[in-house]
Amino acid sequence: MIDLVSEIRQLKKQKNATILAHYYQDGEIQDLADFTGDSLKLARAATKVETDTIVFCGVHFMAETAKMLNPQKRVLLPDMKAGCSLAESCPAAKLDRYQQMLRENGRRFQTVTYINSTAAVKALSDWIVTSGNAEEVIRRVPADLEILFVPDRHLGQYLEEVTGRNMILWDGACMVHEIFSVGDLLSLKKKVPAGITIAHPECPANIREHSDFIGGTEAMIKYVSGFAETKDFLVATEANMLWQLASKHPRHRYHPVPGISCACNKCPHMALNTLEKLRDCLLNGTPEITWQPEFTKAREVVQRSLLN
Ligand code: SF4
After folding, report:
1. Domain shared by 78 and 91, yes or no
2. Do the domain assignments include residue 221?
3. CA gap 302, 305 in Å, rounded
4. How many separate domains does the chain show?
5. How does pLDDT run across 170-214, given as a tens digit for each residue?
6. Could you tell me where the beta strands, DSSP code E, fall in the chain?
């Protein structure tokens, strides 16, 4: 493993590559990265990369976003099959048909799309949001227009609660955040009575209502940084996030909230990227995300929404 890590470091230099890694990747991959972050932070980091090659350790829609913002660069994804159940829950053709049906019925609306979506879906959208800027964007949509929010119904419900604005919600969900078990969260709270529960807004309402803080991954890091004394945090998001929290703020103790079917809540898509595949993609320059026609429109929406 030490050899593999030094091989990756050497190849990174030889191939003039920058490694970007999402907070949901294994700690050993995050450790090798030049930039770590959530989807928004990594999309922004991708615009600042100076090397010819970006290796994106995350899932397909994130690597697509990096390519959109860097058409001249080579963007590699260690495993092309690293998808996302949330992005897959909203196929572009189905969204297109639904939008047409709404228009034919005289509905006037804007489509607000969570960044966890394919480029083809982004191209059909008016706004792209992350859990960090969604509230602000929703408040910017004119009050005489409806909002179609895609693809995450749990995040959509949460945003309805905090903005007071009703939206038409797409029926999608993340397979990792949807399976948190409220029963196990309550047992964990009994075991760690002074624990502070922090949950991602992709979690269902029954988890959010038992949480002390709701926010995306960057917001979670900021929140725990505000506690000077050692605290116990019960964390309801993808399990690798605990590595990032512990490496940034080691004075606290972090406890994963278990899922219904699995005690760890690891994203199986993110887990497809391994150190071996990272080494191989640096070595071979493949799998590569190539430019697709829909990237032009999607890029315009992403830039207007997230980078200005
Ligand atoms: S944790 Fe959920 S939203 Fe994130 S990549 Fe995995 S399936 Fe998609």
Report:
1. no
2. yes
3. 5
4. 3
5. 999 988 888 787 888 898 999 999 999 999 998 999 999 999 999
6. 17-22, 35-37, 53-57, 74-76, 109-114, 127-129, 146-150, 168-169, 196-199, 213-214, 232-236, 253-256, 288-289
96: Cα separation from own chain's centroid: 23
Is 93 found in the same domain as 78?
no
Q: Which domain holds residue 242?
A: 177-256
Pocket test for ligand 1, best of 22, 23, 24, 203 (most atoms within 8 A of CB): 24
Pocket test of ligand 1: the residue of 270, 272, 273 to mutate, having most ligand atoms within 8 Å of its CB, is 270
CATH of the domain at 205: 3.40.50.10800
Same domain, 181 and 149: no
pLDDT tens-digit series, residues 295-305: 999 999 999 88
Q: Which secondary-structure segment (H or E) carries 282?
A: helix 275-284
Q: Are residues 114 and 134 in the same domain?
A: yes
* Ligand 1, atom 1, residue with closest C-alpha: 267
